[in-house]
Amino acid sequence: MKLQLKCLVLILATLLATTSNAQDRSKSGHADEALKLAAIEALMMAPPDKALPVLAGVVSGSGSIELKSRALFVLSQIDNAEANAIVLQAASSAGGEMQTEAIRMIGIGGREDSIAKLAGIYQSSDKAAREAVLEAYMIADEAEAIYQIASNAQSDEEFEKAVHMLGVMGATDFIKRLESRPGATSSLVFSYAMAGDTETLLRIAGDSSNPEAQLAAINGLGIVGGAQVNETLRELYRTANDEEVREAVLKAMLISGDDMGVIELFKAATSNEEKARLLKMLVIMDSDGAMEAIDAALGGDGQ
User: Fold this and answer.
1) How far is CA 102 from the centre of its chain?
2) What is the model's pTM?
3) Burial 21-58 (b: 16+ CB within 10 A, else e)
């Protein structure tokens, strides 16, 4: 076994030392790349003292981003201070795609000491690296860290990216803590929708005291969908006095695909104007009941 590992290390070192002709991307070149990738993966089974020098050479060498990324992944899986330092160095100062890959690998590795360094990297890096930090926090299930970024966000864009990540994580408790931020309504409601927090969306959608939040919540309910949501939207349409609210409900029903609900509302409509609006929605939804509703509107003259 030791002999095999030594051979793998030797093979990889030899391959990495071989320069390729940039003007001749032949099949053999692609085969060499595949072999290099396989050799890097094999180093996961090698003793750290044997693997580390080779992996460090890959990271600092002139190979492809894919090779470097694979090496960073292997390093992130090694429980070793030196391996950790190499990944952190790349995450802190490599720049470009190499840096973002290293940051993501910190999230995958899940080492608490490395994750603790991400806050500083976030503050000192460019937009791409900052987004990679958010992804790394998500991978590592660090909702508290993302909440801190959202709560201290210096721009609406920064806030939106962080709170949407909380939505992806289903971290509704943290999202609720951010409700006092001015102008955050739409971002927060969309995050509730991503988190599937039907209860909160229903509460906001039923509250007409904040029209902006209500309309955003209605749209969010359409994204979530489901039997409970569909019934609530139908009832909200029937009882709403505000035309803007009714229009938002119809759009939400379109998003959720509740054509049966629209048919129900069409049959109960008392004015031709309302019937016409509901009929157009059924056609947009490509509902099987659209033609039946059209025929009913024509009084059989379409046959």
Assistant:
1) 19
2) 0.76
3) eeeeeeeeeeeebeebbebbebbeebebeebbebbbeb
Tell me the C-alpha distance between 15 and 222, whole Å. 54
Between CA 142 and CA 223 the distance in angstroms is 25
Alpha carbon distance 237, 87 (integer Å):
55
How far is C-alpha 163 from the geometric centre of its chain's CA atoms? 11
Of the candidates 156, 144, 93, 155, the one whose C-alpha atom is nearest the C-alpha of residue 120 is 93
What are the tokens at 177? 């803590």
Span 151-200, pLDDT tens digits: 999 999 999 999 999 999 999 999 999 988 888 888 999 999 999 999 99
Amino acid at 186: S
Q: Give the list of residues 6+ apart from residue 149 with CB closer than 8 angstroms, or none.
A: 122, 134, 158, 162
Digit-coded pLDDT (tens) for 103-153: 999 999 888 999 999 999 999 989 999 999 999 999 999 999 999 999 999
Q: Please report which helix (H) or strand (E) contains residue 221, including its range.
A: helix 211-224
